[in-house]
Structure formats: structure tokens, C-alpha cells
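Form 12-C: Joint structure prediction
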Amino acid sequence: MKKTFLGGLVIILSVGVLSSMGVCDEPAISEATSECLECHAMQHPGIVKDWRDSRHAQITPGQAIAVKGLGRKVSSRSVPKELSDAAVGCAECHLLRPDQHADTFDHNGYNVHVVVSPQDCAVCHGEESAQYQKNIMSHAHKNLAGNDLYRQLKTSIIGKTHRTGARLSYREADSATKADSCFYCHGTRLRVSGTRIRDTELAGEMEFPVIEGWPNQGVGRINLDGSMGSCSACHTRHTFSIAVAREPYTCKECHVGPDVPAFPVYAASKHGNIHSTLRKDWNFTTVPWTVGKDFAAPTCATCHVSLLVNPDGEEIVARTHQMNNRLPWRIYGLIYTHPHPLSPDTTIIRNKDGQPLPTDLNGGYAAKFLIGTEEMKQRTTEMQKVCAGCHDSSWVTGHWEKFEQVIQATDAELRTATGLMQEIWEKGLAEGLEKGKNPFDEAIEKKWHLNWLFYANSIRFTSAMAGGGDYGVFAGGRYQLSMGIAEMQEWYNLRWKPDHGK
Amino acid sequence: MKKTFLGGLVIILSVGVLSSMGVCDEPAISEATSECLECHAMQHPGIVKDWRDSRHAQITPGQAIAVKGLGRKVSSRSVPKELSDAAVGCAECHLLRPDQHADTFDHNGYNVHVVVSPQDCAVCHGEESAQYQKNIMSHAHKNLAGNDLYRQLKTSIIGKTHRTGARLSYREADSATKADSCFYCHGTRLRVSGTRIRDTELAGEMEFPVIEGWPNQGVGRINLDGSMGSCSACHTRHTFSIAVAREPYTCKECHVGPDVPAFPVYAASKHGNIHSTLRKDWNFTTVPWTVGKDFAAPTCATCHVSLLVNPDGEEIVARTHQMNNRLPWRIYGLIYTHPHPLSPDTTIIRNKDGQPLPTDLNGGYAAKFLIGTEEMKQRTTEMQKVCAGCHDSSWVTGHWEKFEQVIQATDAELRTATGLMQEIWEKGLAEGLEKGKNPFDEAIEKKWHLNWLFYANSIRFTSAMAGGGDYGVFAGGRYQLSMGIAEMQEWYNLRWKPDHGK
Amino acid sequence: MKKTFLGGLVIILSVGVLSSMGVCDEPAISEATSECLECHAMQHPGIVKDWRDSRHAQITPGQAIAVKGLGRKVSSRSVPKELSDAAVGCAECHLLRPDQHADTFDHNGYNVHVVVSPQDCAVCHGEESAQYQKNIMSHAHKNLAGNDLYRQLKTSIIGKTHRTGARLSYREADSATKADSCFYCHGTRLRVSGTRIRDTELAGEMEFPVIEGWPNQGVGRINLDGSMGSCSACHTRHTFSIAVAREPYTCKECHVGPDVPAFPVYAASKHGNIHSTLRKDWNFTTVPWTVGKDFAAPTCATCHVSLLVNPDGEEIVARTHQMNNRLPWRIYGLIYTHPHPLSPDTTIIRNKDGQPLPTDLNGGYAAKFLIGTEEMKQRTTEMQKVCAGCHDSSWVTGHWEKFEQVIQATDAELRTATGLMQEIWEKGLAEGLEKGKNPFDEAIEKKWHLNWLFYANSIRFTSAMAGGGDYGVFAGGRYQLSMGIAEMQEWYNLRWKPDHGK
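Section 2 - Result
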């Protein structure tokens, strides 16, 4: 005996429920959502508060789609009639597309699924969902799990260390370790592994799906409807707040370590300083977002995502959820700087040596997999429109020229470091790129990737974000990079005596 | 000629003083406190402002104890009559129990003591004070200073480095160094070493006690009445604000470094993100604290200390100042994860090898000193009640199972690292656990304890707090742990050639 | 055909412009500034918003100089008549002293210069500008670029790594790297290298100066009028807000890394905790700044810069922009603690061995270049007046005695580390201080300077700022210092066998 989704969404004005919740002047809540709230409002008051504070609780899709102009947030051409006139509550999302989700289960007569996916969100927010699929972030799970070289790097970091005599090797990490480390940000692959019966406080025994890889909100999560990504990575459940997504603290969740120190560099930059001091007076919720009215310095979202207008309401840049389309260069995660990949699926890339990398070990581009000069120029222009909101052209040009010189300078240093590594491999002091060997797992190889995975990286971030100073030098920047190379050379000198052989 | 404490507390309504302070509609201030304020309000305006902003200045113990139900903050069964009807001012605390404090001195006719102790606070807040004595934190000084192995570790870190030929050894650190490093957080042992006469601006020459180890607000401070702890470690003087204590910035004072990175992990977690963005709209002062009304994500206090209720006012968890009683596992500070110690006094623990450690070097528990399975389960359940405020059972179960697997995985890595260290000791390449030898002070031993004191530690924190990502991998997590073990092996390989002997 | 500066500043009430900007009850805007705004308000709305939010837009110099007493912000004895009666807008600063600036160019008939210098600001803020010239920070570019030893250190960190056989050497860094690293904070040397014609959206082709080293806001920037410094380093353009400058986030821009961890140490201290929690309720804009009214814990500015009064309006300490004049000791950047240099120009210092350093390698002072005991005592007293705002004398004395012991303890450790380095040089295992050799560039030398440039440094900061605990021990403090020395000794032992020779 299952209630149908549509039946469940008949709109009622459940006065008792509403008044007990202190809701007034707010949109009707569907019958199905009201039923959810009857139990869950007391059981999980935190998320219900979040939802109640959310835009979803305060407007119906029908009202939202009627907004004209740049303020419109519902980007789909139309919304299903049955969703149109009630708040977007529990049922509106968790009952959507039940046939598509492997975790759909009968819960109190409803076909509920636990994990809401970008394809669910796409019902109203189609454009953002489509853009996000072109965002390299939506492929974050697959790009890591499906690339042989990355997998070797990953295993040498999170795998189980195994000693055999004087040698170490690394065995595949357990699933909890994987989910809690790389795939915490990259997203897990979800899988329903069975069901579990639980004796609930309010309704006695109930059956629930058991989901491997859950909970997770990584940006490239493989969902139970096969889709990739997690909108709640940034639009934190259950407020799904644009204000939260626009604050740098959201990006910090995954961009804080030495591998990708965007947050600490930002926080130490002039922009971050202004944000820290003045954000309490800014407006993080208006759409479109007005430079010179709503805020006085950019956050991550300002430069990379948001729809910006000037005080006359004229568009400066369009909203994008393909977050690299104001970015010509890819400056981290790999040895050398290079133009952004053409496809968000980077597993297809092969360099001239057949490796799944966007450059070869000498820095040469795997050009046919990367964006070209025209596209790079167009992306640069797009980003510079944002800069121009507060900076004149001599500032912007000076900044950008400096940035492009600095990324070249870091690449030159890494050419030195990598040349040294290659020589060490060549001399047989470490096992490198031969078949079956992991080029990342020996102590000297770890010393090598520190230089590109952390230090050169940090330097480029400080340059890109005008957050130089300490993060560009002493806090994991040039100081550590020059020391890292010096230590590689010293390691080599200690082991390789040209006169005496090894 | 000394005024008695009780005499000094006769309540007067010193209109001149009050009006000069702009105080209206506030409780009477005792004569003694009024006298204090006459000088100190101008001399130290900062702390007087703090006090004036405090609850202590705005309510009398008599009014406070009359509060019914969960909102009551004064937990003692009764308060002394002479304290009942005036604000809790300078005199009310600094004149309490004068015979018990070694720093009591005659100040302007009053028996003042400088350092207020938990036993003083216990006059009104008896329950919290009693709980705190069962908190391992109250024993933090003693547990460090009174454990031979910990003392060796401490000396090898903060002691004076001494070179003799090719060897380094470490001599006892000076008292300032000790007070400013380990005991800054663990708490100093206070001692009155004499008196000092000072020519004061307002009252000419006056005599004051000289207190060794002062100032200090470490959590396990040994006070001048023999008690242990410092309430002002978290309830910052002189507001003693519950709001300050509930913010993560308070815990950060001692939980920020790589040895115990609770704050940075929190700040990079989803919870921390929500807190950073939305805390400006939350209510940090209400008692009890209502999930789904006062706040939308937990701070440290929410999970570990606070009395929480749901929006119906029903208790979710009780307040506790024994901060490990929602914690089954102890995940940091030592090599291996283990059940929490039974007694807050950990100096009594002995493992099977007679060492004062909760596990042996292979990870076996010193079980009779640790809580048992039932207690662990009960503590887990208690913590999960907090989780359930915002998360359904599949989320909570999934999180917890992952956490328990991850701590096992870190323990396995440390078994490898420690096995390597034991082999190095065995081969005589370092001096280990023999009598009179410090197992922590050689360079290779330092490389070893980096792995457990920092890296495995950080990994466990990220897992416990769902703050994975960078802190679990690249920012002092698995990346550094796997490298740390690889460097130990490499160190060993360079020095130990099976074929040629040492 | 150029409009004169004075002509351009004729005051008009451009009603159209004003009403379009929503400005009411605000001072008149000069004709010149109105012309600027006509284009720039739409082109760069962000900075125009900043300016509009600023004090400069809300008061005229004539009104500002009329303020009596400690609240007066315009410190010059008089302001030029032509600036007196209009808001301080674009033109008022960018047209000042046109003959003095190498970047002055004809822009729409006005003699505009791009880079506003401290000498421009001095027109109204003469005292602060004069104090700042005595601040060692104003000499930050010169002190780094003009000191042979520092230049060697700098090149070994940011220079281009060059391999010749088994040796590394460092070549001069490119200009972008320099500007983006050391000189990001120290300030670049600006130079007009030519002009560039750009096709502007609103006015067609226009010619602009090209400025090498721009953009930059480093504290010791060499400006195009020959002056040193950048007021906007702290008084962020274009609000030039005292509130922003008083927040620790401003100082963090350059004081955040392990070389000078003032911000992280502060943020983890009791002061920082109080600030993080309560700053939302503080008043950061009042002049003078009242302890016990406007704020409840110090920020960087409170202790080092601000004019402070007690609630009776009596001065506690005077404002200073010579930021070391409440500081007896210089605790970072060099091997040993030492009294502050007498002159802000430190390139003139020579130690007994003729090196441009304030101490010799054994820690002996280059005394004639440093402040004496009396001056140190006076500066200590000045700082302690700030402490006394919230702390009694036993607290302040205890804190200060501890601090002075701790800096001695760190110096003793560095004597050990430096002695080891000297022995390594002596034995020929590294090339040290001989002519033409860089004493900082080899791997072992880098291991040596880690100890003083980072670790001892951090320890001293924690002690000075009562921010002990983790930053004094585990987060780049004593743990790393003791390990650093142990690793130097181990390096030495591996390479130097007394019995066998090298």
C-alpha cells in the first residue's frame, strides 16, 4: 500500500502543524511534507530549523519561476505542475524521481530516497545542474579513481604500509579510509548494499536501505541515480543557502591544505582582510549580486561563480557553475601549469608518452586535450571583468602579467626538481616509471612530489589571488621549494658517487 | 586591623559609585566590592567592563538559585546567605575562603586572594566543579608532571639542548619555559614565594604576594588552595561568559596545533563552515540550549559539554563538565587509540610491561585502568543523541562505523612505525627503553613520535569530527604519516646493512 | 591643455551626480572629483563604494581639523585652503603634488598620478607620516635590498635554482617573483618604464604610464615621489578605514607565516579568543579608543599603535606610527633577540665582525647601533601601561619576567645550533662565511636557519603575546626547534667521523 508521489503532494493547509511550527504568511506545505514534519521536526530539529530558514520554505516554485530578469533563481523553463504551489519541503525532493534512485524505499507509505542528487535539483535548477556537469569538479571521483597514475599516488598516501625486509609497499586502503580521505572531497561512489531493520522510537520497527559510502557530500559523488556531484557540497543542507555558498568558508572545506591552499591564501590577502572585517555589513543573499553595493571585496564565489552586476543593474559577468570558465590556467594538482582540460573527464587525457597526464615530465602540453589560446584569452577577459569592478586597467594588467611570469618561474623550478628525479631513477637509486612500479611511493619520490603537490602550488595560488607574502615564501612557498630541491640534491649526493659507483 | 569578609559584604547601595558607573536596575553591590571598584575601575577599566557585562553583575545568587528547571545555572543546593543578595563582584570571589588560599594578603583591610580557584566557584556552581574534578583535564598538570615517560618526552622537547661530542642530551627546562609551553595549557603549579612591596599610584606603598607560576589559566593548574583546575581557562575572566565558552575559539586556545588539531579540523568541516557563516545570528547565551532554535550546527561545547533540549524543551543530553563522558575512545596524545581511562588520574596506569601507558607498545590495552565495553557503548549512545539533533540514523551509523574503522587503520600504521622503531632499538642504532635512557630524544625517535603525536592523531580527529579532506590527507594527515614511515625505513636502510653489519 | 589642480578643485554641488549616488547631508564634492566619478563610479563601482563608505567622503579637512582634543584625526597644523571645504575625493589625493610624482600624466585634462604616497597623505596627516618614517617598516624595502647578507638569504630562497654537477646555486630571481614574494610585504621599488595607449570603453584611446613593481602595497614601498612606505598597506584603499586597520586581519596580511606568526599566535591566545567571540559588539571606529568601553581585549593596534584612554577620557598611551616604540626587544627575523635598532635604516649596522647584523654569531650586540637600557626600560613601561588596562601589577610583572627568561632560553638554543653550524663550516662540510660564499644556501644551512627564522621566533611570539600552548610547542615551536637541532647533529655525525677523517 503505497501512496503515490502525486497524491502525497496534494496541498493542504495543515493548520495544526503550521501553527505549532510558528509559520505564518508562508507558502502552503504539501500533505506529504506535513507528514514528514510530524515526526522529523522533533526527532531532528536541527535540519528542520535549517529548512525553515531556507528560501525553499518561503517561496513556491510557481512564485519563484515567475520572477523576471536577473533575479530569477529557478532556471528551468518550467516546473512540474504538482510542485508549483507548495513550499519545497522534505517530500518535494526526497520523493522525486523514485524509479531512478537505487535507495528508494517504502517509508510510511511513501517512496522515499535518502540521497538527493543533482538530477533531482535539476527539476527546478536545470541550468546550474547542466553547467555543473561540465565542471571538472563533478567528475572528481571518476577522475581520481579512473586514472592509473593518480591511483598509484593515492595508494602510496592512504594505502596500508607493508614492510618486506628493507622495502615498503602499499596495499589498497580500506573503504572507510578512502571515504574519509581523498573521497571526502572528491566524492564517494554510493551503493545500496542491503537493508537494515531498526526499532524506531516513534513508529516501531522500520526497514531502511544500507548505503555504502554514505554519508558523503564530495563534489564528484557518484549518486544512486548514476548522476555525479553533490549540490549540498556547497549549498549546505538543509538551508541550501546562497549566502553560505558565497562565503569562503564553504570552499575552505576542501581548499585549505597545502595541496590547494586557496582559503588560507585568501584569508591572508587584502581581499580576505576586507572580508574578515566588513562581511558583517555585507549582503550575501541578493541575486544578482551588486558590486559596489552588496559587498566591498570578492569572496571565492564572486570571482569564480556568481552573477555580478554594477549599481545600474547591468551584468558584469554571468553566473556559472562550470567553475573553470573564468580560468585559463590550471595551476595545481600536477607538476606543471597548463591550459585547462577541454573535457571535465580527464581520464581520457594522454601525453606524448602515453601517460594520463596533461603535460609530459618535461612540461610539454598534451595540447589536443587542453583548451587553446583563444579560449584562454576569452577566459582571462571574463575574469578581468570581475577585477575591473574595483581595479583600473593598470592594476589588472600589472597583476596578470606578474601572475603569468610567476607560474613560469615555478614551472622552471619543477623542471629542475623533476630532472633530478629522472636522474635518480636513471641511476637506479629509485624505481620509477617502469611497468608495475609506483613512481610516487619511495621516500625520495615523496620528497619530489612535495615540491609540486604543495610548494609550487602554493606559490601559484598566492600569485593568482594577490595573497603573496608569507604563503608565497615562508608558509609552504619558495622557502620550502628551494629547500625541497636542495634536499633532493643532497640525498642524491649522499648515494651517488660518480667516482666510486653506487 | 582587618575588616572581616562578612563585614565587608554588608550590602549598601552606594549611589554615588553606581551612578558614576551608569548602572541602573541592577542588583545591589556589596560594600566590599564597591571599595574595590573605587580604585580598580579606573586602574583596570578593561576587566571592570568585562565584569559589568557579565551575568555576575546582573543577578544575585539569591535570584539565580530561585530559577526553576533546566534554566538554573547555580547548581549548588544553597548559597551562603551573605552572598545571596548582592551581585557577584570582586569581593564575592576574591575574599572567599581566605584561610584556604596561600596567597591571601591584607589589602586595604581585606583578606584578598589573587587566584580564584574552582573550589571558590563551587560555592555556587558545585555540580560543575565536582564534575570537572572527574574530568581528565583537571589532572592535566599532575598527569604530565607525574608520569616518568611523559616527563622524558617533555624534557626532550622543551629542555635545554646540551652537546657532548657527537651526542645531544636535554637538561631540565627553566621554570619560565615550562610555564610558557606545556604548562601553559596543562596548568602550572602555583606557589607563593614571598612578598613584594610596590609603590602604587593611588595608595602609596602596598605589599603583595609573589606567586610562582602566575599568571596562568591552564586547565589543570594546581591552585594555592590545593585544588586543581582553572574555570577561567574556558569561562574567560571577568565576563565568565557562557557564550565565550560555547564558541570554538575558547577550545582553540589549547586545541589548535598538530598534536590536537581540533579547531582547524572543525573550522574546515561542514559544521565549522556553517558556524563561521551563521554564528552571527545564533544565540549563545540561552540555558538550556535549544537545537533547532538557538543554533544550526554544533560547536565543541554542543557535543562535549552543553545541556541540550529540543524545541519542546525536552532534554536531549544533560550538561557535563566531565568532558569525556560522551567519548568512548581516546584518540590522541599516545601511540594507539584506546578506551578512555577510568580515573582522571592517569599516573596510576601501568601496561603489561609496567610502563605508565594505557597500551603497550604493540597496542594491547592496560584494560583494568580503562573503561569497559558497556561504558563505551553508553558514551557512544550519549554522543549519538547529539548527532541525532540534525542527522538521521543512517547518517549517524554510517559516520560512526567509518570512524571506528579509521582509528583501527591508523593504529595499524602505528604498529608498523613502532615495529620499525623497536627494530632500530634492538639493532642498537638508537637507545631505547633501557633504564636511564630516553626513548624520545634521538632524531630517529623524534621521527617516530611525529607519526603518532601528530599525524595519526590528525587523521582520527578528522574522522571523529567529519572534517576529513585536507586535514585527513595533506595537512598533517595520511600524506605525512606515510612519508614519516617511509623516512624511518630509509633512515634504517642507510644505517643497517644486513650483509656488512652496522 | 591642462586644467590646473586648483582649478579642478573648485567646489560645485553637482546635484545630478549627487542624487544619482544617493548622497545627502554630505560634504560638497569638488568639481574635479565629480568628473572622476562620472566615469569611474560605473567602471569601478567597488572602490567608489569603498570611498563613499569612508570618512574621507563624509567630512571635509576643514571640519576635521576643527575637532578639539584627542578626537582630532588630522594632525597637520593646517590644511591647504583649497582642500579645506570639500570631501577628500579622488582628485584631492590623485592630483596632489603633481610635480613630485614620476607617474603624473595628463588624464582628461588633469595631472593625475596613479600611486598616492605617504607624502601625499602627510598633507593632512603629517604627524603619522613623520612617525612612520621613523618606523623600521617604512625602510622595509631598503633594509632587505640593501643588506648584502640578507640579499644572500633572499636569493637562496627565491632565486632560480641552478644545477652544476652535484652542486646547486641560485641566480637572481625575476622581477615578478621578487614583487610577489619578499617585496609583496617589504614593498617594491616603483619605476615608470614607459607609457601604454589603451582603447577605453568610455573615452576612446588614452595614454597611461606603465609602472614597474605595480600594483603593490608593501609597507616599505619606494614610491614615485621617492618617499618610502604605503599607508594603504594598513589603511586599505579606498575606505582608509581606522576600523580595518585596528582589526588583526590587517596585520595578518604580512604577519601570518612561521617566520612571523603574530596572527595565528594572537588568534589562539586568550586575547584572540575574546576578540573572535566579541568583536561584533565592539566599536572599532572611535578616536580616542576607550579601554573598558569600546573593546574588551586588545588587537595588534591596541598594543602597538593606538591612542588609548580610560573611561574618564584620560590618556593611557599616545598614538604612534613608529610601531616599535612600545617594544624594547626585537624578537624575530634574526638569530638572536636584541634591543631594537636605533635607526630605522638597518643597512648601516655592523657587528664586531663587520657583518651587517645587530648581533655577531655568538649573540653579542652591535651595541652602538641599538637602543640602550634606558630606552628599553622606557618602552617597556609604555607597553605595560597598555597591559594595566586589564591586568594588575602581579600579572603584568609575572608575564614580563617570564617573557624575558624565555627569549634568553631561545637564544641559548640558537647558540647551540649556530655553534654546530660553525663547526660544520670549520670542518669544510659546508661553505660558510668566506668571501663570495653564501652562508644560507646549502641544505644543512637551510636546516640551520629554520631554527631561528621560524622556530625560536614562534616561541618568542607566543611568550610576548601570552599565546603559549601549541604555537610555543607543537605548531612550529619547541618541538620543531629541538628536532631541528637534533637533525643538524645527526647530519653532522653521518658525515664527520673523527677517527676516519671526512
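Section 3 - Comments
Chain B touches chain C through 70 residues (CB under 8 Å). The CA atoms of residues 358 and 366 of chain B lie 5 Å apart.
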